[in-house]
Amino acid sequence: MNQPLPPINIIACGALAKELMALKSINHWQNLSISCLPAKYHNTPALIPAAVEKKILQIKANNDAQILVAYGDCGTAGVLDKVLQKYDIERLPGAHCYQFFVGQNAFDNLQEEEIGTFYLTDFLVKQFDSYVWKNLGLDRHPELLNLYFGNYKRLVYLAQTTNDSLTDLAKSCAARMGLKFERIFTGYGDMANSLERFKQNKIPFLSLAS
Amino acid sequence: MSDDIENDEYDDEEIDLNALPDDELVEQIQNDLYDGLKEEVVEGTEILLQRKWKPAKILSEALVGGMTIVGIDFRDGILFVPEVLLSANAMKGGMEILKPLLSASDSVSAGKMVIGTVKGDIHDIGKNLVKMMMEGAGFEVIDLGINQSVDDYFAALEEHKPDILGMSALLTTTMPYMKVVIDEMVAKGIRDDYIVLVGGAPLNEEFGEAVGADGYCRDAASTVDIAKQHLALRKAG
Ligand code: B12
Question: Which domain range does residue A74 map to?
């Protein structure tokens, strides 16, 4: 690389922080500046659009580099997209992270195969106790398990990395929930592809302008 | 065991439900329901029955009354999903006792509803809550469960001939399926035979209109009101 790349700001869901950092380092994308919002917005998607907009405005006040939002729709039902349109900002494709890790078609196939599937990512495996168990109140009220997961049959661990101890942990989550276990290696899926595309499309533009 | 002893120290003084006058007992059942205490709700319900309260009155004043407060506090972000689920479970405990008595007494049904979560979606907490509140308001509800296709809905409409069809969706990828169902109803010329109500966290009023539903309901309590309004309009018209 002969000249430094212009900076790109990424506003990301906290559940993707580790993965984005990994992509940044694997690809030597030194120009990515990543800021995360708390992953717990997951449970209250109605709060995501305003939180993202606030971050956009904060960033814009400091620099005028490109921004990419590392969220799916995440249950905002198009409201996040309305905010992003206002600023001409892109987000990751798809409805949620499970879909963009494994890819839309593959996700649809998994759902078709067994609708009663609960998905875990590296992040969720690591944070299972707090983000799943505790958030759903299962630490205090294990009797709720069947009300939440009564219709579920299997747990699919969509793995971003190859890590035996995470796989073991994911297996133990499945056992706790009484679900059969499967692991699919996805890598960074559409997240990596989107970042790559974003870089290719936007950077020449920026370079021309600067 | 030692855990229990510790808990007892934290707990409020044990309340003898039997000793409470009716109005305080109703209030206590509502509080217990809010706190998700199933056994206490069941016990309170039984005591009111022993005191010759009509099942329908217990249901609407104690149980539905309590659950309405839970609904409001959930909407306002004071309560979260686990608490709502616990409360719903407590209410279910009370309803299980009342239901056989309600159907035995020849109270007139407020109307009939078929409800289900749409194809591709298996979220059902909200739907179950709607079902319970509708039953609490005197509706007969046929719950189809989750992942319901056009054919499933149509078969149920045919079989049960309800006044209302209710569809639930929690995923932004599954909410458009509501339009598929409604369009098919139009195509088959049966759309106007039913009141179609839709709900689920990602939906809104605008979406309800766009898919051609009669009403979007933001929560279980408003579903009861909206259902009643539509039924009254039908009867009048
Ligand atoms: C609890 C929950 C779960 C539970 C569901 C348990 C169950 N038995 O239903 C569990 C943990 C199992 C779960 C699983 C999944 N979930 Co989930 N879940 C939620 C959460 C946090 C709350 C939903 C809820 O139950 N709310 C409580 C009830 C009381 O509220 P409600 O459903 O809105 O219902 C009220 C009203 O809407 C209305 N209403 C509802 N239905 C109807 C119907 C009619 C006819 C009417 C009139 C009214 C009405 O009245 C109800 C009562 O007041 C939401 C986030 C959110 N806040 O919406 C995510 C959410 C819906 N889930 C999501 C996802 C992605 C999933 C999974 C794919 C995650 C995974 N790791 O696998 C799986 C689904 C797997 C599959 N095979 O499809 C996403 C969807 C993203 C998107 N783009 O759409 C959300 C938005 C979270 C997020 N931001 O990522 N989930």
Answer: 8-95+190-201
Among B73, B117, B123, B177, say which to mutate for ligand 1: greatest number of ligand atoms within 8 Å of CB: B123
| Judgement on whether residues A53 and A117 belong to the same structural domain of the protein | no
Give chain A positions within 8 Å (CB) of B204: 77
**Ligand 1 centre distance from Cα of residue A44 (Å):** 10
Q: Confirm or reject contact between A82 and chain B (CB < 8 A).
A: no
Task: Count Cβ atoms below 10 Å from residue B86 Cβ, excluding itself.
Answer: 24
d(CA B48, CA B113): 29
The answer for residues whose C-beta is within 8 angstroms of residue A135's C-beta and 6 or more apart is: A40, A43, B82
Taking only the tens place, the pLDDT of each residue in B172-201 is 999 999 999 999 999 999 999 999 999 999
Q: Cβ of B122 under 8 Å from any chain A Cβ?
A: yes
Q: For the segment A64-123, what is each residue's pLDDT rounded down to a tens digit?
A: 889 999 999 999 999 999 999 999 999 998 999 999 999 999 999 999 999 999 999 999
A111 near B CB under 8 A:
yes
pTM of the predicted model, to two decimals? 0.93
Q: Are residues A75 and A111 in the same domain?
A: no
CB A91, CB A70: distance < 8 Å? yes
Is A55 contained in some domain? yes
